[in-house]
Design a protein that fits this description.
The structure holds two protein chains of two kinds. Chain A is built from four helices and 18 strands. Chain A has helices at residues 2-20, 135-144, 274-277, 299-304; strands at residues 35-43, 47-52, 55-60, 66-68, 72-73, 83-89, 92-101, 103-114, 117-121, 129-132, 153-161, 164-170, 194-202, 221-223, 253-258, 263-272, 293-298, 314-319. In chain A, the strands form three sheets. Chain A has a seven-stranded mixed sheet with strand order 3-2-1-6-7-4-5. Chain A has a six-stranded mixed β-barrel with strand order 13-17-14-16-15-18. The chains are: A mainly beta, B alpha+beta. The A-B interface holds A 4-5, 8-9, 11-12, 15-16, 18-20, 24-25, 180-181, 183-184, 186-191, 225, 227-231, 244-252, 320, 322-323 and B 29, 31, 35, 39, 95-97, 103, 106, 168-169, 172-175, 177-183, 209-217, 219, 221, 232, 234, 236, 247, 249, 251.
Chain lengths: 323, 256
């Protein structure tokens, strides 16, 4: 039955295009060759080995290669077995430009707080995340999240530490009210096929089995305006997003442009962005005025479009065809 | 003259309470004074508030004698408590709408909402001495009633930002790609279409195997069968138009 459903979802784009025209459901772009994810097997000053679902791969490190593991770090701080994401130099896919190790994120609504440990509900279709705020990050976390209490929003980027996320960098400025008291969004009277806002990221595999699971490199978006009557389901806990996003279902394709780098891709809707739908924040990365999260990209797609995962967002434009 | 004015208050209060109850019943999300309550109580409070308003409206229109005194007293109490709640809400959350007419009351509580609430409180108090019901007054209405009623409606309209909001919504409804629709509603529209009747003999079952949404279009996929040949019949139904455009397509399974 589940296989049937997956097959039906897979067919939706083809059938939508057949009835509304090809511009309604363009072909999704494949994963770019210059972004690679896997498990670190070995690292030396000049070479990096990675176990990926396609097999063992080796990459060249140069003096210009930068490393991130909770902050800028030296290559010797990385250890075999870590979940590693690489961005290589476009056109020279063996030369590494930047390396991120054990990236993780906790985005959603706080459900419990115990000292420096915060439990975050990340949406009806994802397991809750436990985030631990280390003492050295607590100051900057408190500035952007003044209310670490159940019911308030939380969004932080950090590194994976077993089953928990060590939250190091705040990725939003928390609204001063709990989610249930969010002011009602005024009804939208105007719409357009093109919506401006911000794009964030999530990890569809939560850093697990990136050497064998191809979903670690999944290119897609979790969409904050998934149709409630169909895919979002009876447990749907998404809010009405503050950007006027057209209602879509899983399998649709959208064109996402990173307004900071002007890189774009056509990506399929692969999940519900229930957590993102609560955020009506702005992105300071390239100072765009638009607010509201319009897409939560998979980690691979976010980096492929030129994003820095540690900054958490970029200004984006999302286009839906065939409306 | 004084009795004519009292009669008009009964009608105005009845109309206002009915409109308030109707708009709150349509949009049951907590607004206005309901947000002063704990979260689990907000929605039940909104429903109860709408029921009380509808009950009082019926009482104002049809009760006379002792029952009328009770209903008019309760109406005055309702508006007095409402006025206090609005002042309190304005202090706590200056951006919040009064919620007096459900989702239409989006403008932050200002002098207009407070004056209007005070006016309704005064109107409720003014009806205390009247021996007959609103309905009896309506049956024996005179041209003076009409003049006074029109003047008071004009005053209330000036004090009501909801009118502008209602006009905006009527003129430019929610665009079709943002409009939430129920599956039942879309199935009904599909069944009423010519395309459905044309393709119906091909369907193996009237229940869709998959449904999805793409902006202004809702799609339903059905299993189809003709002899040994199996295929799918897909319908696309436009959202938002009273007479929606419906398209259909017969799709052969992809070759193995």
């Amino acid at each position: 039955m589940a296989a049937d459903r997956t097959g039906y979802i897979h067919d939706r784009r083809r059938l939508t295009a057949a009835l509304l025209g090809p511009e309604a459901a363009p072909d999704p772009h494949p994963a770019p060759a210059h972004v690679v994810r896997g498990t670190l097997t070995d690292i030396s000053p000049h070479m990096l080995g990675l176990a990926t679902p396609e097999g063992e791969r080796r990459f060249i490190l140069t003096p210009q290669t930068t490393f991130w593991y909770g902050g800028e770090c030296a290559p010797r701080e990385l250890r075999p077995g870590q979940d590693v994401l690489l961005r290589c130099t476009p056109g020279a896919e063996l030369v590494v430009e930047r390396v991120w190790a054990d990236l993780a994120r906790a985005t959603g609504v706080i459900t419990a707080v115990d000292g420096d440990t915060v439990t975050v509900a990340t949406g009806h279709d994802r397991a809750p995340v436990t985030a631990v705020i280390p003492y050295r990050a607590s100051g900057r976390m408190r500035v952007r999240h003044p209310r670490l209490e159940p019911g308030y929003l939380f969004d932080a980027v950090g590194v994976r530490d077993g089953d928990t996320v060590r939250a190091l960098i705040p990725a939003t400025t928390q609204p001063p009210y709990p989610v249930v008291e969010t002011p009602r969004r005024p009804p939208q009277h105007r719409s357009s096929a093109q919506v401006a806002g911000i794009a964030s990221w999530y990890d569809p595999v939560r850093g697990q089995d990136t050497d064998t699971d191809p979903d670690g490199m999944l290119m897609g978006v979790a969409y904050p305006a998934l149709d409630r009557t169909g895919d979002c389901g009876p447990a749907c806990d998404r809010a009405t997003p503050c950007a006027p996003l057209p209602l879509l279902s899983l399998g649709a394709t959208v064109r996402v442009v990173n307004e900071c780098t002007r890189v774009f891709a056509v990506l399929p809707v692969v999940a519900c962005g229930a957590a993102a739908s609560h955020f009506c924040d702005r992105c300071t990365v390239c100072d765009a005025p638009a607010s509201g999260r319009i897409a939560e990209l998979t980690l691979a797609a976010f980096v492929a479009l030129g994003g820095q995962p540690e900054s958490g967002c970029w200004s984006a434009t999302l286009t839906v065809g065939g409306l | 003259m004084s009795e004519t004015l009292q009669d008009v208050q009964l009608w105005i209060l009845t109309a206002v309470l009915l409109l308030g109850a109707g708009t709150k019943a349509v949009d049951r999300t907590a607004q206005g004074p309901a947000v002063l309550l704990p979260v689990p109580l907000r929605r039940p409070f909104t429903v109860a508030h709408a029921a009380v308003e509808a009950g009082l409206a019926a009482g104002l229109l049809f009760c006379s004698g002792g029952a009328a005194y009770a209903v008019r007293g309760a109406t005055a109490v309702l508006f007095a408590v409402g006025l206090v709640a609005l002042v309190r809400l304005r202090q706590r959350d200056p951006e919040m709408g009064c919620g007096c007419f459900g989702g239409l009351s989006t403008e932050p509580i200002g002098w207009r909402a407070l004056t209007r609430s005070g006016l309704f409180l005064a109107a409720a108090v003014a009806t205390f001495g009247l021996p007959h019901s609103g309905w009896a007054a309506l049956v024996h209405a005179t041209p003076w009633h009409g003049v006074l009623c029109a003047a008071e409606v004009a005053v209330v309209a000036v004090l009501s930002p909801e009118l502008r909001e209602a006009v905006v919504r009527l003129r430019s409804p929610v665009p079709c790609e943002l409009r939430e629709v129920s599956r039942k509603q879309m199935v009904r529209r599909l069944h009423a279409s010519r395309e459905w009747h044309k393709q119906r003999p091909l369907l193996a079952s009237p229940e869709p195997v998959d449904t999805w949404r793409h902006g202004c279009w809702w799609f339903a996929r059905f299993a189809g069968q003709e002899g040994d040949r199996e295929f799918s019949v897909v319908f696309a139904v436009e959202v938002g138009r009273r007479r929606p455009d419906v398209r259909s397509l017969v799709v052969e399974p992809p070759a193995e």
